Amino acid sequence: MRSVRSYGFITALFAVLTLVTPVLAAPKVTLLNVSYDPTRELYQAFNKAFAAHWLGTAGAEVEINQSHGGSGKQGRAVIDGLQADVVTLALAYDIDAIAEKTDLLPRNWQSRLPSNSTPYTSTIVFLVRKGNPKGIKDWDDLVKPGVVVITPNPKTSGGARWNYLAAWAYALKHNNNDEAKGREFLAALFKNVPVLDTGARGSTTTFVERGIGDVLLAWENEAYLVVNQLGKGDYEIVTPSLSILAEPPVSLVDRNADRHGTRAVAEAYLKYLYTEEGQEIAAKNYYRPRLEAVAAKYAGQFAKLDLVTIDDPLFGGWQKAQKKHFADKGVFDQIYQVNP
Amino acid sequence: MNAQTEPRFVRIALITIALAFFGVFVLLPLFCVFFHAFSKGWVYYVQTLRHPDALAAMRMTVTTALVAVPLNLVFGVAASWAIVKFDFKGKNLLLSLIDLPLSVSPVISGLVFILLFGAQGYFGPWLVAHNIQIVFAPPGIILATIFVTFPMVARELIPIMRSQGSEEEEAALTLGASGWETFWRVTIPNIRWGILYGIILCNARAMGEFGAVSVVSGHIRGLTNTLPLHVEILYNEYQFTAAFAAASVLALLAIVTLIAKTTVEMAIKRGR
Q1: Are the beta carbons of B137 and A23 separated by less than 8 Å?
Q2: What's this model's pTM, rounded to 2 decimal places?
Q3: Contacting residues of A for B237, CB less than 8 Å apart
Q4: In terms of residue numbers, what domain contains A55?
Q5: Parallel, antiparallel, or unpaired: how do β-strands A215-219 and A120-129 relate?
Q6: Nearest-Cα residue of chain A relative to residue B116
Q7: What is the DSSP string of B111-162?
Q8: In chain A, how many domains are there?
Q9: Is the ipTM of this complex over 0.90?
Q10: Does residue A281 fall inside a structural domain?
Q11: pLDDT tens digit sequence for B220-233
Q12: Which end of chain B is more exposed for a tag (fewer CB within 10 A), N or C?
């Protein structure tokens, strides 16, 4: 009988120990970077470079952990308590949401680092199958009947919101800023979308692996990744006449970093994105660098096209754009409801 | 030979349909998993499984099962004992509540813990003030797993205990055994195969759970990834062969579970 009792006790002790140990064990400084979907390869390379840089300058070891997913979903997880030291999300609104709903970081976060806290930019391009069988050249080809378009869900994905807004910009510029026409255009476009994945990576997998769709609306960096690494010769990039300057911003999550005692290294991490080394890594992963010298070096890699920004009067910044288009019962809900 | 009333062609048709379904929906996918897993050879297979992130995911999965299964075992035995051997108020309520985790979508099971223990949840502010991390950390994963595997042991035990009735316990009590002695010397030996069966099912679900764990994990590679989540991450990083290699470990687990389950079933039959 005694042996039975002590067995129960050992089980309970073991349960408690396994619960506690992972929390206690923290041998070196670790950072958690909560990021969006297509930055996996970028931060894999950048984290390695920064760890070496930090060891050289501060003489300390740092390990950077990564979490990836749809940008909106990731922001939501930080709000709910995911212990991010830094966030590197797809668009400013998702970090605004963290500042609004919590006191983890100040509302003026975007003015703390250069260039709107956006160390690299990107844009939205089309990825089509080899030989471009449907002859897709520009946005108006996407609304033609019979063209199957793949894009993620704007409610959860940052890339999807850039896709949507780029289409909106095109529609308004070609219809004298007539909003009714803009809605019609987007309704027609989304009629051609058979499946909405939650993140950009899911959509790429749908297009590439499952072979669904004629055209994928993609981050430029994601499109290059597919063309150069995933399916050499099977896909082509089509650059539309006009697109949007996608600015994926970064920020320190002050409260979390202070609690972990990682503010110094987390700030250095973000600043390192702006250095020549950081910008080189961004460019090599097909993000458009901000630094002139690096941008000039990689100029041949990126197509020149008309880019509207989110601060264009068309949108009036992320706060306005989010409320108008993606909030509950916003334009997206209205046009997507029309064709179930 | 035996009393079969269906004509021969009906029997053949039924067997063919059953075998065809089995082949298409079970054997083919299983074959695919192993085929893809080894498509780059043995060396690559072993390398991907020895990657620090893969090892961390396996550790997390095993830790989760090591906590969830014993706890659910204790609960399962206690609950089924109480339900079968005693009459008390709320017995039917308990009986139907035990099944709740099976009837609720795993996503909801995960969200419940975010609502309870998330930074914006009911206990969130208190937990933050005391520096305790539950969701997006191993405790959250373990809690969610306990929740979804909660009914596994009890569901196996209740029918077995019901069919055995309480006569043997009553006899033991009449002969002067204490309640505790009766439990350990009469009840437990009678249900030991049922317990083992429950543990096997509970463990399989604990290690394979995706939905609920995905919601509370936070997907920090090397820290809060279980094996099923690791498969998803690898797949999304276009490392398809590595994803299938990790999946093959889960498939192997399923096969081992199946063999163990069949063995125990045979033992139960022999025991009767």
Answers
A1: yes
A2: 0.82
A3: 40-41
A4: 6-118+248-274
A5: antiparallel
A6: A80
A7: HHHHHHHSTTSSSHHHHHHTT---TTSHHHHHHHHHHHHTTHHHHHHHHHHH
A8: 2
A9: no
A10: no
A11: 988 999 999 999 99
A12: N
